[in-house]
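Tutorial sheet, problem 5. The two components below are modelled jointly, 1029 residues in total.
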Amino acid sequence: MRNLKIGIIGRVLACSAGLLLAARAESQQATPAAPTPAPVYPLTAYSSFGSSLALSGHFADLGWSEEQVNAFLQGFKSAVQGKAVPMDDSARQLAADMGKRISEITASGQLQEAEAADPKVRLKTYFREMGKRLGLQVSDDGLGYNVQAGRNGIRPRMGDTVVFTVKATQADGATTIPVLSAEHLKVKFSGMMPALMEGLQMMTVGSHAVFVIPPALSFGDGQWPDGVPQGSPLVYWVTLEDVAAAPSAR
Amino acid sequence: MDPRRNDEDADDSRERAGCGRRSFIRSAAISSVGLAASLSWPLRLVAGPLAGSGAATEAIRPQPESTRRMVALLAKITREADPLKNPYRNAAAAAILRRTQAQMTDPQELLRHRMKLAWQVLDSGDGEGGLKELEGIQAMMDQMGVPSDQRAEPEWLTYKAMCYLRIGENENCCSNHNADSCLFPIKGKGVHTLPRGSRGAVEVLTELLTKYPGDLQARWLINIAYMTLGEYPDKVPGQWLIEPARFASDYDLGRFPDIATSIGLGVTGRAGGVVLEDFDGNGFLDVMVSSWGVDDQLRLFRNNGDGTFTERTEEAGLKGLTGGLNLIHCDYNNDGLMDVLVLRGAWMGTEGHYPCSLLRNNGDFTFTDVTEEAGLMRFHPTGTAVWFDYNNDGWVDLFIANESREGDRNPCELYRNNGDGTFTEVGADFGVNLVGFFKGVVSADYNNDGRPDLYLSRLDGPKVLLRNDGPAGDDKGPKARWKFTDVADEAGVTQPPTTFACWFWDYDNDGWPDIFVAGYAEQDVGDVAADYLGLPYAGQRAKLYRNNRDGTFADVTKAAGLDRLLLGMGANFGDLDNDGWLDFYVGTGNPDLSSLMPNRMYRNDGKGRFQDVTTSGGFGQLQKGHGIAFGDMNNSGTQDIFSVVGGAVEGDAYNRQVFANPGHGNNWVKLRLEGVSTNRGAIGARVKVVVPSGLGEREIHRTVGTGAHFGSSTLRQEIGLGAARTIKRVEVLWPVSGKTQVLEDLEINACYHVKEGSEPEKVALGTFKWPLGSGFPET
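Model answer (structure tokens):
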């Protein structure tokens, strides 16, 4: 969602910036018009308007030094005072470079917008961000995991009975989903959702883990329980408390 | 009643740690006796080093005052430290715990106290003592009526198995050490002749696996225990067997025998670093090796040029200089002699506030500790640093990456070389005083802009790639403020989350440095079993990043066959078979005594894939692997490997290894570069060797440096040429001038001294064969 917003705003502002630069270039060619008496506004409004122009022109993103900004403002002021600094080759080159740069910024914004609209890309972005936040690794089939060491070497195997506590949250990792959470849950290690089957096998008794689960490894195309955001990644915080071997394994 | 949870300080360090000993006096003493008594080597091999040392007749010069001050300072810090706060001073901690045990009145408190003691006893290497402590704990639990479900049975069974395994290792691999000891998969002379330890371990592990069949750690260990008895795989119960085929090499590289003991280098120690370099300019690579215990002596060995090495520690003025997890070398003062930096304090947490030591080479095989006069007296715990000339002024600078943890902030440091033997710390001013638990730092010019960059590996977060952007302002001089920018995220090299070993190298010979970083997190050694068995595991895998030549890197780990759990600590790279493609060796493990996993060797097949040659080459040492260096120790034209073996805790000392290269028939060239405007050791200089091949010209690229972050290989460039019979040209790019020097008419299988801007000079290197009886194939 954040990227989506940035994309739209970036596109709008970049258009404004293009107009601004074009207008400025034209102004260098034209004879300055006689100044018109301006209505009276508070000075803060002028400051705000100036900032708005700078923002719309992506000036903050152009990487100008303070010296360059001052020179730009000086030229701006001169033009307003009817003493515009003439355009030379370097100024034209600068205008062209800035136009190109702003196009890139616009394109980047559009790309982000496009990315935000594609669920696969959105999921990838989400995993990248959660990966940084939670120190995740990602398995071949897309399960994000971070498992802390446990007490001993015992790992669950198919058919064993496992005891674990799980707190399920929405994709933000904070909003609990009560219907998927349980304490000291004792179940047979088989037939669970694919993510838990894979994740629990990585754990040893006493270990804690966080699993970030893509939709395909939770409920996929099946029935999503009430209270669970359909098609959304889930975050499981799991503690493996015990493993009892299947009778046949003893 | 979780035994591991009763010592939070030790546990915290253990979980974070990765290395290992205090001088394991008992084991070392037994080892010496065993060595003298066995007399299994030809007499001349024993007599050679002794006769050549001159130790009995040569007067030892007094240590310089500055060295004496450092010796005193190190001793003072150790004397005033609290062994209970340092999880690696186990015998001292055990002694304190025994003394204070009498004061305990509350049974619960006493039980917890005894558990702490039990772990310290085992970690000190005393398996018998550990078993006795366990008996006492169990009797106490009986007396207190601790319910069975609160007795942490699997944990204590594992502890008991470890006590037995330790007994077996002490009595066989340490006291009766031979070249096959602990070489995975154990067989031949590696089979224990005194089997009581392994028999006990098998019994306990059988009980454990019968009750808890999902214990993958126990399954791994029982396979090892059966190997030590010579009963693997036949007698391993089928449901627990890990088949031999799982350990098979991808390629038969031929056996590299471990000849360390025969040539005088099989010394015992804990985790430590190594420098393989020619300290006296006679053309033979000498050895400096450390052991990280706070009382462990730094040691220096001279290559006698006849297949033997002589210890020259005291003669070199190094006596009393102790500890040091890692060593890196360079010529910091441009005098043509290789100096050494000793890095101390890593993993020790708040007890790790030791200084580094800068050892200036005096040119007569002696060193002076010049840390203080050089301006390097600082007290942050570290195990990694890199020499690089960030400002291209012709003097190597120093970046030290430190370990910070909650409540103990130790920012990274950048020392600018002032060109007069002193350094100035500029890291804070330049904004590179990063704070984190850093485990590796390496340097290369990854974007080929002429300025060396830095890559940092850390345990606690995303990796850092500091792009060197040059002067930050109008001042372009060497003392200017410099700009470094972390571009790891945009370059795509931040993963995996928890890492240790790392290095820059040009594995694909395209002239653009690539990155390798080893994951360093696991549940326990069961994750290693899972990796071999193809089961899911949580341990963190390695990453190989190929340089895309546009400021970004591609994750090619899977395509390269390296998507494995390597748990690399020490590491380095070189060319095992002189085919011109860089191979690598990883020292593996962590402080836990149960972490018996093989060190791993990989051969670059030249087609983008790496072949595991661990077992075929005889490189699978199960004991903990730390500093590793590649270098041609007998000037035969092929690179040998020195491996510092030994763990973190006091009971985990082990013999160092030297893997002698049997040769593979390929050609080579050696280049000793000497900078003039570039730093004299030529660190950062780029070498391109062009040879003819069936497909036209072939390029082989190298950068002068000591290699990976842990272990210091010779700066002499030892370059394999494959089957090429001629060298078309060699191009050396000198970083300060930015000029490329083209060398023509160089011969194959020869060594050249290449001084910047001068004609190369052919150097006649002395050479020798490894001695008869050393284990090296006799011809």
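Marking note: Confidence is low (pLDDT under 50) at residues 1-56 of chain B. Full credit if you identified this.
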